[in-house]
Amino acid sequence: MRLPVLFILVTVMLDAMGIGLILPVMPDLIAEVRGTGLNDAALWGGILSAAYAIMQFGFAPTIGNLSDRFGRRPVLLVSMSVMALDYVVMALAGSIWLLLAGRIVAGITAATHSTAFAFMADITEPETRAKSFGLISAGFGMGFIFGPLLGGLLGDLDPRAPFVAAALLAALNVVFGLFVLPESLPRARRRRFDWRRANPAGGLMQMGQLPGVRPLLAVMLAYQVSNFVYPAIWAYWTQGAFGWDAAMVGTSLAAYGVAMAIVQGGLVQPVLRRLGEVRAVTWGLILNTGCLVAYALIGQGWMIWAMIPISALGAMVAPALQGVLSRAAGADQQGELQGVLASLSALSMILSPLMMTQAFFWATREGGAIWWPGAPFALAALLMALSLLLFLGIQARAATATPAE
Q: Which PANTHER family does the protein's record reference (predicted)?
């Protein structure tokens, strides 16, 4: 593997760690700084996750457009440097407000994964981009392996210890990038920075003008809101339903990350070669819907371990759908497109934690009409089914229009 690609994979891994690192320690950390119970901690956890995602939503198009103007290298290195400093701040956080401030900055710095996708688009041909995007998604999977592992194992020592480790990793990656990362966007292919396009609304409007892109963006949003139920609710669900501790939560999330990395790093290309991008998305959405229903109904903790490798197969959807979307954008729009997709991902990270933690709160509150910790997964299954119906509708309209062309 070329060293620049390795740097990109480590970068997106650290971006993902920004999410996964805090998950196993979130209930205990919030309980420590706020003195609350589990279901109340879940509400604050939703707020912290939403704050992180709001920053990604707002800044991903800006950073993507900056990389289209000034190049990928400076954007990636500066953002990673700020991330290292921010982890130090979160390691020292003694109040919920300082922790919230840290998550806000972390959300801005982690928005660089749009630039990472753009870098890969720069160095690959359109027909092989889905494979490259799958490789980056595998890097995210690795982040969901090491993040929860660090959070679970080091969190048993101190809830802040994982952030110290993450700060060291980010700083080392900056040094690594200074030596190995070239610029992938020649000056001749750069374009003027325009604030009207460097925001979520402007970016969506610009990308929405490309043929067939707007309905596909709706599919991506519904899919991501649904799929984010796993990091949003996992720690609260497993602790509330099965009594798992931070180490067990971290281990299970790491196992899910391993399974996702195997799928996205090793299985995406064979699946795409056999099924094609459209059928890979269709069957992936069907599989995801069934798995979410199964998680909603699980009654024993051991069943989770049986479901993890099956549900991870659905991770093929994102790179396949990104491959379809990437074909619609020009060489000087890849950063902008990936910024828009990152904004949609961030929007899902705003909506999903708030929706799923609220569902968990109302389904597990004391004196409530029902006690159903798996209720958030049922809600996610409905959203995943909506994504599937939207995608099938797009394909049906395309099939009807083709003979008339």
A: MAJOR FACILITATOR SUPERFAMILY (MFS) PROFILE DOMAIN-CONTAINING PROTEIN (PTHR23504:SF15), MAJOR FACILITATOR SUPERFAMILY DOMAIN-CONTAINING PROTEIN 10 (PTHR23504)
**Least reliable range by pLDDT among 111-115, 123-127, 200-204, 361-365:** 200-204
For tokens 């929706």, what's the residue?
Answer: 355
| Residue with tokens 């109904």, as numbered in its chain | 297
Distance, CA of 43 to CA of 279 (rounded, Å): 38
d(CA 359, CA 371): 11
Q: What is the pLDDT of residues 198-249, one digit of tens each?
A: 556 665 565 556 556 778 888 888 998 998 888 788 888 888 888 887 778 8
Angle at the Cα of 273 from the Cα atoms of 267 and 279, rounded to 5 degrees: 90
For residue 301, the 8-state DSSP code is T
DSSP state of 189: G
Do the beta carbons of residue 144 and residue 251 sit within 8 Å?
no
The per-residue pLDDT for 291 is 94
E strands along 53-166, which residues? none
Q: What 3-state class would DSSP assign to 401? A: helix
Whats the size of the chain, residue-wise? Answer: 405
Residues 6+ apart with CB under 8 A from 7: 76, 173, 176, 177, 180, 181
Greatest alpha-carbon span in the chain: 66
Structure confidence by residue, pLDDT tens digits, 328-377 = 665 555 556 666 776 777 778 778 888 898 888 888 877 767 788 888 99
